[in-house]
Amino acid sequence: MTTAGADCLFCRIVARRSDAEIEYEDDHVLAFKDIYPKAAIHLLIVPKRHIASILTMETGDAEVIGRCLLAARTIGAAKGFGERGYRVSVNCGPEGGQHVYHVHFHFMAGGRRGA
Ligand code: 5GP
Ligand code: ZN
After folding, report:
1. Per the structure, how many domains does the chain have?
2. What's 45's domain CATH number?
3. Given the CA of residue 91, which atom of ligand 1 is nearest to it?
4. pTM of the prediction?
């Protein structure tokens, strides 16, 4: 649950050691397409620094978590959803449906896809 670096899929994507279709990047945040999209546009917005889960985030993580939400706003506006809106969600822990233990915000826009 606290694995980082080489053991963490999203750390590998941040380090460009695993492939992903990157859609947004700034100094602190990366966003890339979810490999199994559940909406017409389904991105994962992650802090570049490894934070395992909202369950274990610390006060010092608050700024970069806020930056993830600012990235969602930027992405939404850039893709033409600034007024129509979109969904941003976080799964937290085993009963919250979290499978990858590097905090990520699901950004979903343009309607659901699949089951
Ligand atoms: P969780 O279930 O932890 O909230 O979300 C993990 C998300 O990561 C899922 O929506 C899943 O489709 C996505 N995912 C899993 N493996 C990969 C991968 O290798 N690349 C990308 N881009 N997304 C992945
Ligand atoms: Zn990580």
Report:
1. 1
2. 3.30.428.10
3. 4
4. 0.95
